[in-house]
Every structure is written in structure tokens, then in C-alpha cells.
TrEMBL record:
This is Fe-S cluster assembly ATP-binding protein. InterPro entries: AAA+_ATPase (IPR003593), ABC_transporter-like_ATP-bd (IPR003439), FeS-cluster_ATPase_SufC (IPR010230), P-loop_NTPase (IPR027417). PROSITE patterns: ABC_TRANSPORTER_2 (PS50893). The keyword ATP-binding applies. It comes from Dokdonia pacifica.
Length: 249
């Protein structure tokens, strides 16, 4: 599904990613953990195509096709979804309208007509029930005045509606209370299938009790210094990151 090959990227004169290799197969969930400032959000942004970062070497493939030359919209149409650590507020655009527009733009890019209103409504009803989202919430302006947990839940709702091939969740757990964490994680689990892949970025092992990853990677100073199974997350929770510093050369 996703192949990242020897990826170097940075901003202006600063190198942030220093040779990342990553392979996520369809049906898999990978987690990335790592200290603050190690490049986790940069990696997600570069995969999603944010133009502020410059890729200086390497390549990114989605289903064997390089996506490096695609802008963020094209990548989204190809099925890349990125949740934001800090979501934007859009006054005057409701949660529902935002998602309708996003879905219909993707359909348009594929040469399809707009989704019929009845079908859209049915899907909104199903997905909001799945994620236990209050209908009133759907008519509010996007992210305006949303609590931290509401923003996160809204992101997962967008993901559920868009049915991406590759979902990247950047610190989806930060700021969620215990019930919301469970609901969001259940939502992600229900959306897991043999046709999609998920990359979860988190600081805490706790989220990975709910969304059980197939593979855990540790990112430090722009490099993946360790890869293991879900037990690696437990080990990190216990030992922190210091013991991995010797892997950095
Ligand atoms: N737009 C930017 N301008 C300047 N520096 C940046 C920019 N984006 C990232 N960086 C720098 O690159 C490094 C990696 O940042 P990044 O946000 O990827 O870290 P992170 O691993 O996601 O950290 P956290 O766990 O705190 O979210 C940091 O030193 C950060 O200051
Ligand atoms: Mg980050």
C-alpha cells in the first residue's frame, strides 16, 4: 500500500527526515512513536504532500505509484487521509457540508457524479452512529469552538466518510477522555479492512491497547531506529527512549 524509500526531507536549511524506509502492506496498522521533534508530524505531512517541506532525496509510493509529484488534493483523491495534530477552524462551513464537498470532489476527480443526497444522508447517519456522534454536532461550523476531543472525533468521522486507502492519524489520542478514546479507537478498528492501511502516530502505549498495531517503529532524529511488534510500545513505555540513542549514528 505505502512504500517510503530512503526519504530525506526538510524545511529551508534544516534537515528533518534523514533516510526513512517504511513499508505498510494493505490490511496492516503501523504505529510510529518517538520523542518530541523527532519528525513524526513532518513524515505525515510529507506523505500527505504539504508543500512547505522539501523532499531532497528518496521517494514515496502508493500502490507502487510514486506520489511525490502530486499535490495534496491529488493525493487525497488517491486515498491518502491525514488527520491533523492541530486542525483548522472554518467558520460558516458546517461539519456536514465540509465532508459532502470533500466526498464530491474526490468523486469528481474520478469522473463520477455527485453522491445522491439520500445516499449521502444514509452514510452520514451510519457513520455518525458508529462513532457515537451527536447529530447536532454535524450542523456546527467546522472546528469552531470544538473541544479538543470533539476535534479528534470529527477527524475520525471525516476518515470514516472518506474511506481512505491510507489513513495517517497524528496524535489522535491527545486530549481524548477515556470514553472518547475508546470510541475513536473502535471507529478506527471498524474501518480496518484488507483494502486499507493505517499509520498511527502516538506518544502513549495506551492507544495501542485499543488500536492494536501489527508493527511499531521508533523515530528519532529523523531516522527509524527500531522496528518491532506491539510489545515494543510496552518496552518504550517502561524504558523511555534513552536506551535507543546508541542506535543513532
Ligand atoms: N514548518 C516548520 N518550520 C520550522 N521547523 C519545523 C517545521 N516543521 C517541523 N519543524 C522542525 O522539525 C522537527 C520535527 O518536527 P515534527 O513536528 O515533525 O516533530 P514530531 O516528532 O511530530 O514532534 P511532536 O511529538 O512534538 O509532535 C522539529 O525540530 C521542528 O521544530
Ligand atoms: Mg507531531
Amino acid at each position: 500500500m505505502l512504500t517510503v524509500k530512503n526519504l530525506y526531507a526538510g524545511i529551508e536549511e534544516k534537515d528533518i527526515l534523514k533516510g526513512i524506509n517504511l513499508e505498510i502492506k494493505a490490511g496492516e496498522v503501523h504505529a510510529i512513536m518517538g520523542p518530541n521533534g523527532s519528525g513524526k508530524s513532518t513524515l505525515s505531512s510529507v506523505i500527505a504532500g504539504k508543500e512547505e517541506y522539501e523532499v531532497t532525496d528518496g521517494d514515496i509510493f502508493l500502490n507502487e505509484e510514486s506520489i511525490l509529484e502530486m499535490d495534496p488534493e491529488e493525493r487525497a483523491h488517491e486515498g491518502v487521509f491525514l488527520s491533523f495534530q492541530y486542525p483548522v477552524e472554518i467558520p460558516g462551513v458546517t461539519v456536514t457540508n465540509f465532508i459532502k464537498t470533500a466526498i464530491n470532489q474526490t468523486r469528481k476527480a474520478k469522473g463520477l457524479e455527485d453522491m445522491p443526497a439520500s445516499e449521502m444522508l444514509k452514510m452520514i447517519r451510519e457513520k455518525s452512529e458508529l462513532l457515537e456522534i451527536d447529530r447536532k454536532f454535524l450542523s456546527r461550523s467546522l472546528n469552531v469552538g470544538f473541544s479538543g476531543g470533539e476535534k479528534k472525533r470529527n477527524e475520525i468521522f471525516q476518515m470514516a466518510m472518506l474511506e481512505p486507502k491510507l489513513a495517517i492519524l497524528d496524535e489522535t489520542d491527545s486530549g481524548l477522555d477515556i470514553d472518547a478514546l475508546r470510541i475513536v479507537a473502535n471507529g478506527v478498528n471498524k474501518l480496518r479492512s484488507e483494502d486499507n492501511a493505517v499509520l498511527v502516530i502516538t506518544h502513549y502505549q495506551r492507544l495501542l491497547d485499543y488500536i492494536v498495531p501489527d508493527v511499531v517503529h521508533v523515530l528519532m532524529d529523523g531516522k527509524i531506529v527500531k522496528t518491532g511488534g506491539k510489545e515494543l510500545a510496552h518496552e518504550l513505555e517502561e524504558k523511555g527512549y534513552d536506551w535507543l540513542k546508541e542506535e543513532l549514528v
